[in-house]
Specification:
Blueprint (H helix, E strand, L loop, with lengths): L2 H14 L6 E5 L2 E5 L2 E4 L4 E4 L26 H17 L15 H28 L4 H28 L7 H8 L11 H4 L1 H47 L11 H4 L1 H16 L3 H4 L4 H16 L4 H24 L4 H6 L2 H8 L1 H11 L13 H30 L3
Antiparallel strand pairs: 1-2, 3-4
């Protein structure tokens, strides 16, 4: 590109607030900026292929940085948003916290759905990279890495709560402990508050006992159909639960068939995201006006999930909207939303989100009148416990986890 053209591109970038080199052309009175990158699946590193017009004419960056290392732009920022929703939802009703009604029902549950979609998307991308490099996915190493990442912090939390139960500080039942340690909390009616949030970790572990196995059996070409089947099972299972489980203790629980389609939606996105990025009709959804429309639609549906039809079928629409917005956040990581999501403090909170999710439940207890469960000290204690878990357990084990990942390299 000549100097004059480069300067013109930079000028257009500065006018429109877009960072980095781009090509700009004025078509129909509007500047169209575009970036085209691809992921080299052999290395997992972003590379710039060539410059060409994006279908919609807005700044976009497809998959970037290191998929191989488990990182994509904006995902930690989205995790920070998700844990914020969880903290907001669980803080509501605690002593000293101003009650908020944002008319989207359960904020905490919505945050967990975001976690689920991110998880399915990223893990599927990682498995595709591993299969592309080695022609297979190692189930043994997959589960070893997950165990190192999740189990030490989770079982440390469970042990701490059990100790508090033993000395009489909190009230549990033996079945709470059993379901916590076996990752079956999503099947337990009347579970205690302190372990109640472990339903999400339980459902995720149950899903990832099946998904990598399906990937190995069906292969990367056909596994997308498995994810699509999981998505279709969701509304059928929710309808069946309405017909057959009403009036039982299990109605309203996060049973695997009723909720797993959240993760399956992320898995399907991970499988077909490269193809979607070649479809003009799909990329139009990344325009700010359409993205805001998807966000508004998801929040509106959440507002009316008390209605049976909305709960059965609308949940799938919410999952799809969140999946598109997650994809947009990764693809368009250089717009103003991406800048916020990739801001270092936000990224740091996202990296801390797993520990925060574990420990916040012990302190953000709306059923307790104790000083330690009152706002704002309850939030400070939750953050302190999460920091301790992260730096004493999670971070040291990351090195071993990286060595396990290197075995697949």
């Amino acid at each position: 590109m000549g100097n004059a053209r480069l300067n013109a591109c930079r000028l257009a970038d500065s006018i429109l607030g877009v960072a980095g080199d781009s090509t700009a052309s004025k078509l129909g009175g509007h500047y169209h900026l575009f970036y085209e990158y691809t992921i080299d699946l052999a290395t997992g590193i972003q590379k710039e292929d060539h410059l060409s017009l994006s279908p919609g004419g807005w700044p976009v960056v497809p998959h970037s940085d290191s998929v191989k290392a488990g990182h994509l732009p904006s995902l930690d920022g989205l995790r920070a948003l998700a844990i914020f929703l969880v903290l907001l939802g669980h803080s509501n009703g605690t002593r000293g916290f101003v009650s908020l009604d944002l008319v989207i029902k359960d904020y905490a549950y919505l945050g967990v759905v975001v976690f689920f979609v991110i998880s399915g998307f990223l893990i599927t991308r990682l498995m595709l990279v591993e299969h592309s490099e080695h022609g297979r996915v190692s189930l043994r190493l997959f589960h070893a890495r997950r165990a190192l990442r999740l189990f030490p912090a989770a079982y440390a939390f469970i042990a701490c709560v059990c100790l508090l139960w033993w000395i009489g500080v909190v009230h549990l039942q033996a079945r709470d402990v059993w379901c916590a340690v076996t990752y079956t909390m999503n099947y337990l009616p009347g579970r205690s508050w302190q372990f109640g949030h472990l339903w999400a970790l339980s459902l995720e572990e149950q899903f990832y006992l099946l998904w990598p196995f399906a990937f190995v059996i069906f292969g990367p070409r056909r596994v997308g159909w498995v994810a699509a089947g999981g998505i279709l099972i969701g509304p059928v299972a929710r309808a069946a639960a309405w017909l057959f489980l009403r009036g039982t203790p299990y109605y309203g629980l996060e049973l695997f068939p009723l909720v797993a389609d959240c993760i399956a939606m992320g898995c399907l996105l991970g499988k077909i995201s490269d193809w979607l990025e070649t479809q003009n009709w799909y990329l139009q959804l990344f325009r700010p006006v359409y993205s805001l429309g998807l966000l508004a639609l998801a929040l509106l549906i959440r507002r009316y999930t008390g209605y049976t039809v909305v709960s059965v079928f609308g949940t799938s629409v919410v999952n799809a909207c969140i999946a598109v917005l997650v994809h947009r956040s990764v693809y368009c990581s250089r717009d103003w939303v991406g800048i916020v999501l990739n801001w270092k403090p936000v990224v740091y909170v996202g990296g801390l989100s797993y520990s925060l999710y574990l420990w916040q439940q012990l302190f953000l207890n709306r059923n307790s009148s104790d000083w330690i469960n009152a706002f704002p000290q309850n939030l400070l204690f939750a953050v302190a416990a999460a920091l301790g878990s992260y730096y004493l357990l999670e971070k040291p084990l990351l090195r071993l986890r990286h060595r396990l990942r290197a075995k697949t390299a």
